[in-house]
Amino acid sequence: MSSVIDSLKQQLQEIPEINSAEVLNSVLCLKELSGQTQLEGKWIQLTNVCKILGDAARTETVRTPLGNARVIEDLATLLQRVPSEETDFHIQALRVLGNMCFDHEDNRKHVKDSGVISTISPFFQSRKKELLPFICGFYLNSSMDYAPIQSQLSECGAAKSLIELMDPDTGITDDNCVTMCMKILDGITSNEEARKMVADTFAVKILVKRLVYELKCLEHLDMLDSLACSLLEIIMDDDILQNEIVDLGVLDELLDFLENTTIETGLAKEEKETLGEIKKAVMRLVVYALSTDSKMDELFNDQYLLSRLMKMMTNPVDVVHQCAAYALGNLARSDEHCIELVEKYKLSKHLLDLFQHTENATFQYAILGCLKHLCLPKANKPLIGNENCIQIVSSTLDQSKDMLKRNQFLSIGIIKLLCTGNYKNAVKVIDEGVLSLIVSFIKRVDDPAAKSEATRVITNVIKAIWVEEDSKDLRTKLLESDAIKPIVELVCTTQFDVLKNDGIMALNLVFSNKHYLSFMAPLFPLLTTDDYDMNGQKMSFVTCMSNDICESKLPVQIKCNICVLLCQIIEAASLVEQRDVIELIKTRCLNRLKLMKPDDVLQTYISTLTNALETDQKIRVCVRKRPLNKSEMLAKEKDIAQMSGMRTIDILEPKVKLDLTQYVEPHSFTFDNVFDSNISNRTIYQKTTRPLVDYMFEGGKSTCFAFGQTGSGKTYTMLDPKHGLYTLAVMDIFRLLNKGRYAHLAVWVGYYEIYQGHLYDLLNKRKKLIPRDDGKGNVVIAGLKEVRVHDVDTLMEVCSFGSRERTTNKTMTNQSSSRSHAILQICLKQSTNNKPYGKLNFIDLAGSERGTDRGHNTDAKVRMEGAEINRSLLALKECIRALDQDQKHASFRGSKLTMVLRDSFIGNSKTCMIATISPNSSNSDHTLNTLRYANRIKEFRGESDSRLVDTHVEDAEAMDIEEEEEEGQPRRITKEHIKIFLDQHWVEIHESEEYLKIAKEMVNDINSAAMDSLEFYNKYRSYLTSLNSLLEKKLSVIHHLQDKIKEELCSDDE
User: Where on this chain does ATP bind (predicted)?
Assistant: First the structure.
């Protein structure tokens, strides 16, 4: 102790402003008496000692020595023992503590550790007016900017006592005391921990009463400023406390203050600034009071309040119209409220006017926030768009405003919402230069959130524009801009599934429309270059999409959408000869897709994408194997058709040698797809016919054939009423029509057959029809009855009716064999003018057969049917093969079948043939003939697999197209028979005539040349070479015809 006193004495002696000896003796006296057990009669002495120390502590240099001497701890001990009536001691002790803590953090720590804060708190209960100012003074000096004591004040209840003193009805009237209370509370409310302990409805009620009281007199501006700010801190994060302001019924008084209080010109500068801050704080109180969900409907339905706020919107005083804008923004948080505020009160127009007339970036931010709420309801989008909102708010996207990123972000959000599903607003974005501002913004900002939000503006514009038919110019402008690259980048780089899918859907629209192919060329490099950073590695869009399908944990639907997008890109790329794009997709995806084992939904889309990659899609040839039937199983027939992967089928043909030894000769064929007997019609549909449906909706002409031996399952595959490909297609057609994008289209159905070279309407009492050319490359079936259908059931009924009218007959292989080619024609037409849009033909070809299949006793009619069927199948094969090999000319006059289908083969068309085969060994020759026919239709170019071509049988043998005879039965040659023979071999005869014509032209050319000229020599050499080739072809045809003629003569002799 002596060392402490010695140090104190030395320090005090160095302070000239005080009587060091008097202060030292007072400290010694204080320490001595604080250690005594009996203090009765000594409180006057202690009071005098404290008065000396309190006076001394007013000198700044004295506070540290007194604190080091533990004067605070001694006083804390005495204050715990002093009787309540010793008010003078209380006052002087508080003076010492308050003065020692003034601007002295070390002494405040002594106060905190001594526990004196809680010791003094009960003194409030005495309500002694002379004591209260000293309590407040001590609490103020000790807690100023010192959070630990602020928390202690809240914990011990002192803060609540201070609040009670603020009640204008029952509290103190001493202005200085009130001001000190307010400053203490101001410190407490700025401390989050301390504030939470006092923030309750009791505090809010009293402080609001005091606020209203002070606003009326405006005498203590500093205190009023602290009061408003403290109250704001208390209610800011608590809906219940915000509601308390409304329940107290003081909103009108607060609004009156804002509207009616003016800042007088006679006020000092500081007073003007303080009054301005008070008005801002009161404005914020009102805004917070109107922000709770629980009170939103109640306040919105208060017509007086709503009208007053709308009137305040036109007030020229900043704080008044700002308050109204903020408050109305809080009430605009439901669709019903937003719609009424826009339609009835024209709030959006007022907000846009304010936005244009203020330079206050913070207020602009508030306006934009309110506008964004108003833009959410669909009904508001056209109204706000017509108020020039897009053009006004887009001004924030100028590069000069890049410092105001919050405002830019909100502006982008507003434009995005206004373009969502609204065509006219999307037009404004493109035509008014806003799109270029957005694209420029995306290019120069680094913030991922801002870039993605801006990119979504573009995706919304695309969605809105692409659903409108008459938007060619707008689509062109969009494709000519740099707007697609941000979408590609978003899809590649975003970590959010919803954003990725949004971009994918927009790109699907862009690549789905094949009318803008000329503008798509610049888009393909965006897909193939390694420009996009994925986890530190540069990748192309194609690679990213491959990873998303094969590796990512994206939702299945998004993966399906990616598959659709890649199919769209493949098709577009093929149309503009961007083969490198297709090859890249194939390289990145094909093998990975084949290794995947996804669920059924995704598998459908992956199969479609795989198919698109494995073929150019102009002509597709697939094979379907039916299961063994009951009779074949009873006969213990073997299944000789074995699958080898997804594209190859092996036929194990049973053979017998000359020595009667049995053996198996294998044959392998590869097609676009091979379907085993357990594959459902739906799976086959997804891989073969569904792309044709989609193509029809793109304005194309599609054709799906079923071909095969009688009884191999053609009609079941194609026209089964429950599972047929046309049934599944019809369901998808009407599902697509129900989408808004295709609402302008209608479905028309025609159904006819080709029998014996003539056309018959199956929907109109088998009326005979005539195919004609309309001069525009389209085949028109004159007289064909077309029925408009509105739903799936009606279309099915129409098809069922037509199927019953079809020609059938009995053969050895089938009790009810189709003897005609049936063509179900589904057309999409414009609803308004019936203008053709797209077409899909389903063709169930009559079964291919040989004469022996008809039986020995078959009549001439059945033989004639077979001859016509085989002739038309040969002509069809030659047409399709010519088209697949990109030959410049393909003859469609070989049969009525090819004539009526001409417009489905050329131009904007796609064709898929499904060859159906029987797997039983007794039908091996039929099966091989069908597969050879299919193989000739589409020769797979550029493949090294030796199994692809089975060359040891000629086409004629493969189809077994010949005019068979009835064995052992003589027949009479008639004109009709000759006509049938000539009709059947019209193609061969016509080709022979063509060869003769070419040879004659060559001779004429040579005769016209000078005998001694170089021209003559060259032409002569060319003629010899060509003639040699020509004669070989001609001899082949002639020999074939000779065989036919000999057979005819033999049959005649017999």
Answer: 708-715
